[in-house]
Amino acid sequence: MRTSRRTARLAVFALAGAIVVAPPAALAVFSASPVVTAGVTAATISAPGSFTATAASGTTASLSWTAPAPPAPTGYTLAQAPGTLAGCSATPSGTSCTATGLTSGTPYTWTLKAAYNNWLSSSVTASATTTSASVGFTLLGNATDGTSGTSASTVTDSKTGASGAVVIILIYRQASSNHPAVSSITGTAISGTPAAINSQSFGSPPKYVVSAYSATGSGTTNGTVTVTFDTTNNVNTTIDVVGLSGYNTSSPIAGSAVSSSSGTTATGSALTPGNSSDGELFFAGLTSATSMTTPTGYTALDVPASTVHGSWYSTSASATGISATLGVSSTGATIEIEIAHS
């Protein structure tokens, strides 16, 4: 009888979403709401780990992170600067998302916190720069040196390039003796030793040369680039310093080609691979001054009205050698450089 009475005093009922315990005097109801871990405060909530942002295109970026140490968060908060967050929720529940609606070639920073009910952890950030819609070209500086019998010529950049960005140095040299050659390139506008891309001697005798080098920009305001040749035989030297943007930073130079010819056109050689999504620089030098037209689909960087050199660019590289029409017949040489798009 005692056992029966104790059993009668406690009835347990299973209801949808709750457990009801019914003693004689009262009912206690426990719902399925999240359990709050004892001792949890804002100070005990860990921040998310391994937060990374990777530009997927000119308008999107992939974000990912790992969940913090227990207690497990009930969610996260996410913010973006600049602009308005899109594609990702401002209160994501998972550990990855793709931010959309971004502007190409723009740096972004995302700020992430772990949430535990009403408490938030310290923040972590991740940054990425979206890829450019195309390769960009900026003439940072140009100069012509007609000082007779010198070996070195210097150009001062009128515009400041980005620190760490690739710059292309285009050089035209008319010498008083055969086969002029670059021996060094130095200056405050660049870091390290420039790498030769290509060169082409021309003329009869070959006292002319066009050369192209790639270098890393230092970001120095009014920085200089000094090109020194192997002999003191200058007649006329021109230097163009071109800054790049939107290129493949691991391997920006996709290909180059040189050519020489005589006549009323300066024609380049075929580029390999010649991808239309890549950018292209076209550089030409002549033995006699004349006018030079801008090739179709290209934009002039440095082309004086009457000149012995010209430089142009296009945001879409051509596998076929392009041509500039000359005002008078001349012997010339060209360099075409394909810049890989990021």
Count of β-strands? 23
Strands ordered across the widest β-sheet: 11-18-13-16-15
**Main pleated sheet:** 5 strands, antiparallel
Mean pLDDT: 88
Instruction: Provide the structure class.
Output: mainly beta
Quaternary organisation of the protein chains: single chain
The poorly predicted ranges are 1-35
Instruction: Please give the share of residues in helix.
Output: under 10%
The shape, in one word, is: elongated
Kindly provide the radius of gyration, computed on alpha-carbon positions and rounded to a whole number of angstroms. 33 Å
| Secondary-structure element series | HEEEEEEEEEEEEEEEEEEEEEEE
Describe, in plain words, how this protein is organized in 3D:
This protein is mainly β and 342 residues long. The strands form 6 sheets. A 5-stranded antiparallel beta sheet has the order 11-18-13-16-15, with no helix packed on it. A 5-stranded antiparallel beta sheet has the order 19-23-20-22-21, with no helix packed on it. Strands 6, 8, 9 and 10 form a 4-stranded antiparallel beta sheet that branches. It has one helix at 2-9; strands at residues 11-15, 18-22, 28-30, 49-55, 61-66, 75-81, 96-99, 107-116, 119-120, 124-129, 136-145, 152-156, 166-175, 182-186, 190-202, 208-217, 224-229, 234-245, 253-267, 279-290, 299-302, 307-314, 323-339.
Short characterization:
The chain is mainly beta and 342 residues long.
Identify the notable features of this structure and list them briefly.
elongated, 1 helix, mainly beta, five-stranded antiparallel sheet
